Amino acid sequence: MVAKKKKQQGHYCRICSEYKANEQFSGKGHSRHICKECRSLPDDVKADMVRCNEVERAVFKCLMSRQDWELLEKYAKKYKDKESGQFAQDMLDMKRGNQTPDEDMEEDDVLIEGIYEEETIPFAELEDDIRYQLEELLADNINEFMIHKNYIPEGKELKDINEWVMKETRDTFFIKVIPDAAYDSLVEETINRLVKEWKEDGFEIKTYSASLVVMETERLLIRRITRKDMDALLAIMGKPEVMYAWEHGFTKKDVRKWINRQLIRYRKDGFGYFAVILKESGALIGQAGLMNSTLNGNETVELGYILDQEKQRSHPQHNMGIVNATYRTLVYSGFAVSHESALSLYSYSKAPCTRRLCAQSVCLRTM
After folding, report:
1. Distance (Å, whole) CA 281 – CA 45
2. Does residue 78 have a pLDDT over 50?
3. What is the mean pLDDT of residues 172-188?
4. Are the C-beta atoms of residues 312 and 319 closer than 8 Å to each other?
């Protein structure tokens, strides 16, 4: 009969990675538990054991970062005469494909597969050492995601991280962990803690959707355009009456090029056309933005907008209020515009108030 892994009893020591049953631990929380035996070890030995744990966590991440590789290379060079340095070098060789598999290790792996039967355990019932390592794995991968992407994972991206953490736990401990309310709370607490730590270090990080918003009014969100806006923009820019200044409606290929142009402007100038979103409905009703331009030989920043006339007619009580609100927000916020810049306004809308808006622009330029 295939044996199940026995549930360990007691607390988990972060130094030796072992359970110490019926032992009172010092410190609070899994990350601070150190057993009596480890507390009596010389500091250099404890430090080397901690480094071994760091190497193990770095190697078994979903995606090894540049910092992880640097950590392994540093430990392999600096502590080559210690266990942590040799472990780091072994892991580097393995990751780079320089290590020849040990036949004995392969045989051991086959034996292990036949010894243990996979268990299914809710997260809340995990033993201390597995829970601690899962918590570390989750935090490391969320933090790495935030470093590489510069926003907080959510939706499918957060789901992918959770699935990878569960897979690694399953492959390592032969346990299928069932995410439960306790795990959901852990994910939320981990993200909140990391966001707080980033803030304390002077960095603000948001969710992807929140990071796109550049400004807002009482009724509008003005945010960066993304490739996911393709269908909404095509529905507006495909209309010849909206794009009359181009003398034709845009095709899907035209809209794709337009989006790419705005993404380049964001990186190059810090601004471009932005999507204008009604908060009430979440509908994308058009675009407005700033562009560097040369007018009569002078460097200037132009404000332009493209609004869907159908959506304007569906909101007759404030259709030009939308134009005014967008215009005022972009201009008076001083978004990416220096005090010395001349500002002009042009419109691809046949709205009756365009002349009044242009008059406001001229007034602003003379202030």
Report:
1. 61
2. yes
3. 92
4. yes
Residues 300 and 219 in one domain: yes
Q: CB of 135 within 8 A of CB of 191?
A: no
Is the per-residue pLDDT at 172 higher than 90?
A: no
Domain count, the chain: 2
**Cα–Cα distance between 340 and 342 in angstroms, integer?**
7
The upper half-sphere exposure of residue 344, i.e. CA atoms within 13 Å in the direction of its Cβ, equals: 9
Angle between helical axes of 181-200 and 128-149 (0-180°, round to 10): 50
Res. 136: pLDDT tops 70: yes
**Is residue 359 in some structural domain?**
yes
Helix (H) or strand (E) holding 233: helix 230-237
* CATH number of the domain where residue 343 is located: 3.40.630.30
Question: What are the tens digits of pLDDT across the range 121-131?
Answer: 999 999 888 88
Boundary-marking domain end, from 176, 206, 236: 206
Answer whether 0.70 is exceeded by the pTM. Answer: no
Of the spans 121-125, 292-296, 350-354, which averages the highest pLDDT? 121-125
In the DSSP assignment, the letter for residue 348 is S
Q: Which of 54-58, 248-252, 325-329 has the lowest mean pLDDT?
A: 325-329
Q: Is residue 171 part of a domain?
A: yes
Whether residues 230 and 319 fall in one domain: yes
Structural domain that includes position 224 = 212-365
Closest CA relative to residue 315, chosen from 286, 347, 358? 286
Q: Which residues contact 296 (CB under 8 A, 6 or more apart)?
A: none
**CA-CA distances (angstroms) from residue 216 to 228, 230, 277, 316, 324?**
20, 22, 9, 21, 13
